[in-house]
Amino acid sequence: MSFNFKCGEKLMHIVIIGPNPPCIRCRRILKMLREIKNEEGLDMEITHVFAGSDESEKYGRIMDSHIFLESLGVNTGELDELFERRDFKGIDEWLAPYVEEARKRRIMLTPVVVVNGKVKTVGVVPEKEELKRIIKEEAAYG
User: Which end of the chain has fewer surrounding CB within 10 Å, N or C?
Assistant: First the structure.
């Protein structure tokens, strides 16, 4: 899925990398990006790419969080409950030690947000203000 938004004269390219189909975390990021677009009047092309695809691999080794946890033999029952409640902060907190473990193994866990070819966030759903800051910085310094 792609969207084009206006940011001065420069088209920004934002890639969200996550599972197929997109999970609630990826959809939350997409929703926030649409809101930012409307509020800030930015020109952005936003694409959701599936972890493990050729497109995603050009940014590094990326795995769906659940697949990584399964490979470690981790019981994800509590995590699944957090997903059901759509507790994004709780999900991020629960996953934090595993995001770090994946990083040690040179793996990025989903969701991954890439702006203009630069990985900006890994394994978390950033707050809306954080996304705004990232986008504005890239627009200014890109």
Answer: N
Q: How many CA atoms lie within 13 A of 64 on its CB side?
A: 17
Q: Where are the beta strands (DSSP E) in the chain?
A: 2-4, 12-18, 44-50, 62-63, 108-109, 112-115, 118-122
Query: Distance between CA atoms of 103 and 113, rounded to whole angstroms?
Result: 15
- Taken in order 115, 46, 39, 126, the sign of the CA dihedral is negative
pTM: 0.88
The residue to which tokens 């999900």 are assigned: 91
Domain ranges of the chain: 2-137
**112 has which bridge partners?**
17, 122
Confidence grade of residue 142 (pLDDT, cut at 50, 70, 90): low
**Count of residues for the chain?**
142
Taking only the tens place, the pLDDT of each residue in 26-70 is: 999 999 998 998 888 888 899 999 999 999 999 999 999 999 999
Cα 48 to Cα 53: distance, rounded to the nearest angstrom: 11
